[in-house]
Amino acid sequence: MTEIKKTDETSDRGYGRTLRGVVKSNKMTKTITVEVVRTVRHAKYNKFLKKRARYYAHDERSEAGIGDTVIIVESRPLSRLKRWRLQSIAEKAKV
After folding, report:
1. What pLDDT, on a 0 to 100 scale, did the predictor assign at position 4?
2. Is the pLDDT of residue 1 over 70?
3. Global pTM?
4. Beta partners for 70?
5. What secondary structure does DSSP assign to 56-77, as a single string?
6. What is the pLDDT of residue 95?
7. Is there a domain that residue 11 lies in?
8. How many angstroms from the chain centroid is the CA of residue 61?
């Protein structure tokens, strides 16, 4: 039998999708709500529309605040609604 050596634990698994959004709520313990806005073109009228989606992300150290721009990464299901983890804070809110 041949033995396969893994050099990096995340190399075969990868990260999945990453999204960039704004933190709308951090009132839950170790959880943030991130709003991701994207623009799509209407099929008939060719007008650009803003679509938004809200994701629950796991924030282990509770370091993200409301208004921060964050990068979240797809992960395994962590609870009933959480399927994303906080990867990094791209920009802190100016308050």
Report:
1. 52
2. no
3. 0.80
4. 21, 89
5. EEE-TT----TT-EEEEEE-S-
6. 75
7. no
8. 15
